[in-house]
């Protein structure tokens, strides 16, 4: 039985490993080790991949004597799940509070093109609801 991954259950290093796996789509321990910052040991990366598999975030395929690790869920699904958790945990489930936090003091950093895209998304959301 495959566990459903929990978005908040990842350490900083586990998130780094997941980013590498999403970017490469599949990787052996050695390939992850070559990409990861801070250069942990081979056995540390192997152990963390095993933990990620136990948590349901990755699965492995056997290629000869090597395990090749693959994300268990598509990045977009994981992204939505993590975002939903963030909104529920820190913003009481309120999209308005999220947008206000993102725009608070940072409006000057948003380009006119981004503001136009946001306005179109809001307009589309109004039409669909």
What do these coordinates show?
The protein is mainly α and 129 residues long. It has 2 domains: 7-71, Arc Repressor Mutant, subunit A (Orthogonal Bundle); 75-128. 58% of the residues lie in helices and 9% in strands. It contains 6 helices and 2 strands; from the N terminus they run H-H-H-E-E-H-H-H. The protein has helices at 12-24, 29-35, 42-54, 75-90, 95-103, 112-128; strands at 58-63, 66-71. A two-stranded antiparallel sheet has the order 1-2. A hairpin with a 2-residue loop joins strand 1 (58-63) and strand 2 (66-71). It is elongated and about 55 Å long. The protein starts with 11 loop residues before the first helix and ends with a helix. The mean pLDDT is 88.
Described by the principal axes of the CA atoms, the overall outline is elongated
Rounded average pLDDT: 88
* Uncertain ranges: none
Amino-to-carboxy terminus distance: 37 Å
Q: Helix count, per DSSP?
A: 6
What is the CATH C-level name of the largest domain? Mainly Alpha
Widest beta sheet: strand line-up: 1-2
CATH architectural designation of the largest domain: Orthogonal Bundle
Number-wise, the strands total 2
CATH superfamily of the largest domain: Winged helix-like DNA-binding domain superfamily/Winged helix DNA-binding domain
Sheet having the most strands: 2 strands, antiparallel
And the CATH topology of the largest domain?
Answer: Arc Repressor Mutant, subunit A
Q: How many domains?
A: 2
The succession of helices and strands, N to C, reads: HHHEEHHH
Helix/strand-derived class? mainly alpha
Helical fraction:
55-70%
Rg over CA atoms: 19 Å
Strand content: 5-15%
């Amino acid at each position: 039985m495959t566990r459903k991954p929990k978005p908040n259950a990842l350490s900083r290093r586990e998130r780094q490993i997941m980013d590498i796996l999403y970017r490469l789509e599949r990787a052996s321990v050695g390939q992850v080790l070559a990409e990861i910052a801070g250069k942990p040991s081979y056995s540390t990366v192997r152990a963390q991949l095993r933990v990620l598999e136990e948590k349901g975030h990755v699965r492995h395929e056997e290629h000869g004597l090597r395990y090749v690790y693959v994300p268990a869920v598509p990045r977009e699904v994981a992204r939505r799940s993590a975002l939903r958790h963030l909104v529920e945990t820190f913003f009481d489930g309120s999209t308005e509070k999220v947008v206000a936090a993102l725009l608070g003091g940072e409006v000057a950093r948003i380009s006119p093109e981004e503001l136009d895209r946001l306005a179109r998304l809001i307009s589309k959301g109004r039409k669909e609801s």
